[in-house]
Amino acid sequence: MVYQCSNYEFEDVIGQVDAADLLAPSLPEETRLIRLGRRAVNKARRSLNLLAGMTMTMNPVTVDRKYDLFFAVFLFPAEVLYLNKVQGWREQAKQAACFLGEVWTKDAALLRQYSPLLRQFDHIFLHIGASVSLVESVIGRPCHLIRVGVDAIRFCPYPDPPARVVDCYSFGRRSKPVHEALLKLTGERRFFYLFDTVNNFAVNDPTEHRRMTAEIIKRSRYFTAFKHNLNASHLTGGDEAMGARHFEGTAGGTVMVGVAPATPEFDQVFNWEDALIPIPFDAQDMGSILAELDAQPARLERARRNNVLGALRRHDWGHRWGTILEVMGLPPLPGLAERKNRLESLARLAESG
Predict the structure, then answer these.
(1) Are residues 66 and 92 in contact, defined by beta-carbon separation less than 8 angstroms?
(2) Which of 159, 192, 228, 235 is the most exposed place for a label (fewest CB within 10 A)?
(3) CB burial readout 305-322, b (16+ within 10 A) else e
C-alpha cells in the first residue's frame, strides 16, 4: 500500500549501507473470495481481541544462519504477527530490535495484546514521542525515540536542479479548505496544482513510487504538509507527532506550507528559519498567501536551500540507521560512511548554489 512505501525505503537504505539480508515472507496465491473471507474472519477476531487465532496468509521464511542483529520494521502493532512467519528469528540473532511506526498513547490495550511478541526484542524504536514511556511501561523493554527519515540522496534536487514547474504539490493528509482554495486558483490563473484523486491505494512497486514522488517534489515550488491529527484525531487520540511529509518536503527543496505539530521536538528537528511556513488549517485565501510569498524570492530561495541542507545533514535514513547501530553497540560498516560522505558532498553543492 502507498502508506508503506516510506518504510520500504528505510529497508532499502539499510541494505545499501550494511551487510543485511532481507527476510520477507511472500504472498501465497489465493482467490479473491478466499482473501475477502480471511479478512472478514480476522476483522471479527480483532474486534473480539482473539488475536491468537488471526491468520497471516504468508509463506514462511526460515532464518538459517547466525546474525548479530535481527531488525524488524513495522508500521502498525498488528504487523508484529508476521514474526510468526519468520521461523528461527530470535534463536539465530544475538540481538533483536524493531521499529514501530504508528503507536499512539490510546493504544495501550492493543500493545498488551501483542506484548508476548514485542518482549522478544531487546530494544524498540518509535517515532511518536508521546508513546515512548507508554510502550516502555507496557512491553518492559528499552524504548527510544527515532524520527522518520527520508532517502535524502534520492529526493535531493542537486547536482542538477530541475525547473520547478509544479506550483503546488499535495499528497496524503490535507486540509479540505486549503485544497478547495488551491483548486480555485487553477481556474483563476496559470497555476499547476498536483494532488491525490484516490485514497489508500496499492502501488505496483514501492521503490518506483518513491522515485516518482521524489521527482515531483524536486519540481514543485510549494508543498503542503499537515500534522497527523489535523483531521485524523480518531486515529491519533489527539497525540501530536511529525509525519513523513515534513521530511520529504525538506529533502526535495520545496517551500513547505501547512500546519506543524504542537511538539517541542518539531522546532528541534527543523531548527532553521522557514522550514515550514505556517498557514491556517482552514485558509481560504491561498492566492494572496502564495502571492505574498512569491514577492519574496530571496526568502524562498533561502528556505529551499536550508531545507535541502537540513535533510542531507540530519534526516537521511542513513542517519537513523547509524543511531540504531549506536544504541545496539554495533560498529557501522564502511557503506554508511560512504553514504554520509555522499550526503555531505551534495550539501556542499547546495551551499554553493
Answers:
(1) yes
(2) 159
(3) bbbbbbbbbbbbbbbbbb
4 vs 121: which has the higher pLDDT: 121
Backbone angles phi, psi at 192, to 5 degrees: -95, 105
C-alpha cell belonging to residue 75: 508500521
Overall average pLDDT of the 167-183 stretch = 92
Helix, strand, or coil (residue 270): coil
pLDDT for 166 equals 97
Q: How far apart are CA 153 and CA 252, in angstroms?
A: 9
* Cell reading at 73: 520494521
When computed from its CA atoms, the radius of gyration of the chain, rounded to whole angstroms, is: 21
Tell me the per-residue pLDDT of 202-234, one tens digit each, with 9 for 90 and over.
889 999 999 999 999 999 999 999 876 555 555
Q: What is the DSSP string of 273-288?
A: TTSSEE--TT---HHH
CA distances from 202 to 2, 148, 209, 215 (A): 6, 21, 10, 19
Strand partners, 258: 225, 278
Mention every residue, 6+ apart, whose C-beta is less than 8 A from residue 259: 175, 226, 227, 230, 278, 279, 281
Sequence-ordered alpha helix ranges (H) in 130-270: 132-139, 152-155, 176-188, 206-218, 233-236, 244-251, 264-269
> For the chain, what is the total number of helices (H) and then of strands (E)?
14, 11
Instruction: Tell which wins on pLDDT, 38 or 6.
Output: 6
56, three cell numbers: 497471516
Report the run of H or E that residue 340 belongs to, with start and end. helix 334-352
Label the pairing between strands 61-62 and 86-87: parallel
- Please tell me the predicted confidence (pLDDT) of residue 46: 52
Higher-confidence residue of 234 and 24: namely 24
Backbone angles phi and psi of 323, in degrees to 5 = -65, -45
Q: Are 42 and 17 in contact (CB under 8 A)?
A: no
pLDDT of residue 2: 82
